[in-house]
Automatic annotation (TrEMBL):
One of its GO terms (biological process) is translation. Residues 195-246 are annotated as: Disordered. GO terms for cellular component: cytosolic large ribosomal subunit. Keywords: Ribonucleoprotein, Ribosomal protein, RNA-binding, rRNA-binding. The keyword RNA-binding applies. Residues 226-246 have a biased composition (Basic and acidic residues). GO terms for molecular function: 5S rRNA binding; structural constituent of ribosome. This is Large ribosomal subunit protein bL25. It comes from Candidatus Desantisbacteria bacterium CG_4_10_14_0_8_um_filter_48_22. HAMAP family: Ribosomal_bL25_CTC.
Length: 246
């Protein structure tokens, strides 16, 4: 991997107000640290930094300040949450003679036949693979050709091809990509609506009232008949008594 130069200058004044003034003039605050050396506070051109990171996430930098060049890599970039622009950069010192652990992005090429022919879906489980190598041997990306993958086929980390001198640290049985079958939605059987017959509350009430009235009428008729019979019996008894007296 090529080494890219980035001009910088040492910051004498620190603080948020100084950082705001810096950004107004097209610069951002940065810090260089690592390898047991004292951190150095820098300022760099935002435009120059954007050009650098456009070449890849893991570029090797030669940061120039005070007439010297320090080999480093981008460790972290902080972005403004509203404007989505870089507001701060962290650089980490590295040695070209010492291996480092670093994450390399995965690049997918092709479209699986399980997707084009059978409607499957390519599920990307991992976006990066951790490797160990010398800074100059860091691959820009790790390519995965997926054209021949069918439904159920997958690629594991251990099957990835890496350049000479690069060691994969991600567990070899880690799933990187897999082609999954399409989801088939079962048709639900229509539910037959059972229309309940309306309750004839009024009719039942009327029938109930009529029944009650009928019962009351029968009772009244029975009572009247009983009284009539009793009266007749009394009259018969009185007649008999009168005949005896005569």
């Amino acid at each position: 991997m090529e080494q890219i130069e980035l001009d910088a200058s040492v910051r004498e004044n620190l603080g948020s107000s100084e950082s705001r003034k810096m950004r107004m003039h097209g610069f951002i605050p940065a810090v260089l640290y690592g390898r047991s050396e004292k951190p150095v506070h820098l300022k760099v051109s935002l435009l120059d930094l954007c050009k650098v990171i456009s070449k890849g996430e893991n570029v090797i930098l030669s940061i120039k300040f005070d007439g010297k060049g320090k080999t480093a890599m981008v460790k972290e970039l902080q972005y403004d949450p509203v404007e989505d622009v870089i507001v701060h950069a962290d650089f980490y010192r590295v040695s070209l003679q010492e291996k480092i652990n670093i994450n390399v992005p995965i690049e997918i090429t092709g479209v699986p036949k399980g997707v084009t022919e059978k409607g499957g879906v390519l599920d990307e489980i991992l976006r990066e693979i951790e490797v160990r190598c010398l800074p100059k041997d860091i691959p820009k990306t790790l390519l995965i050709e997926v054209t021949q993958l069918d439904i159920g086929d997958s690629v594991l980390a251990g099957a990835l091809k890496v350049p000479t001198g690069v060691e994969i640290l991600t567990p070899p049985d880690s799933l990187v990509v897999v082609v999954i079958a399409p989801t088939i939605l079962k048709e639900e059987k229509p539910v037959e609506e059972v229309v309940a017959e309306p309750e004839l509350i009024g009719k039942e009430k009327e029938e109930g009232e009529e029944g009650e009235k009928g019962e009351e009428g029968e009772k009244a008729s029975s009572a009247a008949a009983g009284e009539k019979k009793e009266g007749a019996e009394k009259q018969t008894g009185t007649g008999k008594e009168e005949k005896k007296k005569e």
